[in-house]
Q: What sequence folds into this?
């Protein structure tokens, strides 16, 4: 057989379509696989099959990060205020005073000598007063006077 123009064109077409040499030989008929390969080489079609993935990946060269040394302007240290942290004076709870057990006096039972510290809900039947002996000139007992008149700060001795 001979390579007619039609067969050559068919060969090119099939080759470009991606058929293998043996498939093309079978398609054309009358030619061997080697004959197809030889013809392809002569036609300069052997460049087929270059995978596009062979394109070199352009690797980015990591740009070296230029670190700038920051010049920090430090203020005048003389202007820095020195804060004197004073130790907080803790208010000592009165531990020596025991919470008295209320005598549960009613309002009518209160006298000038009884503690008038209310205990409970005034609208409730269980409402009562402390009833312990009150301090002089004070309406409350020692304990409740301490609660009622608790000084926010202990007096400082100067
Ligand atoms: Zn009391």
A:
């Amino acid at each position: 057989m001979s390579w007619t123009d039609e067969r050559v064109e068919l060969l090119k077409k099939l080759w470009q379509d991606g058929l293998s040499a043996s498939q093309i030989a079978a398609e054309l008929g009358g030619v061997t696989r080697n004959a197809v390969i030889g013809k392809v080489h002569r036609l300069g079609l052997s460049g087929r099959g270059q995978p596009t993935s062979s394109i070199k990946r352009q690797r980015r060269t990591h740009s070296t990060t230029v670190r700038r040394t920051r010049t920090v302007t430090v203020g005048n240290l003389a202007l820095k205020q020195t804060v004197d942290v004073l130790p907080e004076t803790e208010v000592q709870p009165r531990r020596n005073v025991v919470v008295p057990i209320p005598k549960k006096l009613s309002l009518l039972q209160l006298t000038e000598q009884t503690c008038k510290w209310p205990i409970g809900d005034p609208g409730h039947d269980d409402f009562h007063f402390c009833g312990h002996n009150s301090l002089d000139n004070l309406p409350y007992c020692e304990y409740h006077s301490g609660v009622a008149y608790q000084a926010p700060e202990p007096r400082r001795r100067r």
Residues 5-47 form one domain. DSSP finds four helices and two strands in the chain.
